[in-house]
Predict the structure.
Amino acid sequence: MAVPGGPPESGQLSPDARGVAWIWWLSGCAALVAVLVIGGFAVGGFALYNAARSGAFNCVPSDFPKYPNLAFRSLNAKTNGAQSSCEIVYASSDSAPAVVDFYTSKLGEAPWQVRDSGPSAIDFVNSDTGATGTVQVTPTSSGSEILIDYQGP
């Protein structure tokens, strides 16, 4: 039994140590919460990044021609009722003329139609849905950048 005013018994904290213990407890809890929040953002961000890379946020229809081995760069999509519009940017290691030739050929097949074509852009329409858009290809130092501007259902 501890004597009042005397030293604490074995296994007990001194009054000074008890006054500081809550600071350590609070710091430990705050560190744990910080680690959990940062970990949650990391896992969520990684999942979002992988979903975007796999085309989960693609707003063009599934029958829209997709150039092989594209690397997803960005997406800007808007929806207004049944109509949607989006801009998707991809990168390719292939030359701009090769990409333009691919899209000119594939967008010339039904139900797609090429309305106008140039050395770096193809305007298209889908005869079944009325969807329209442009594929613009820009040469880069590592290949080409593909911007697909799509408006339609």
